[in-house]
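This part of the workshop introduces the protein records we will be handling. Getting from the letters to the tokens is the skill we practise here. An example says more than a description, so a record of this kind follows:
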Amino acid sequence: MTTFTADMLKELAYFFTNTDRSMLEAKGLIQPGKSGDDRWKRFNHNFDIFILKLSDEDRAVLAAMATDYAKSFEPEGGAA
């Protein structure tokens, strides 16, 4: 089982806070445009519910996005 650190939780919170609709559109997790935003709007932009309702495949895409985002917090040369 993964042990979450305080830094990991902080990075996830930043990812959830800073991920906007255009990033979700670019990865194909929601359809582009106002009328295509139904999966995101259906959960009142609640990221937790959105994640829980994604398919396993889409959740894997989102996990990769979060991993890439977290890498931006690592010191150069990898994890300390």
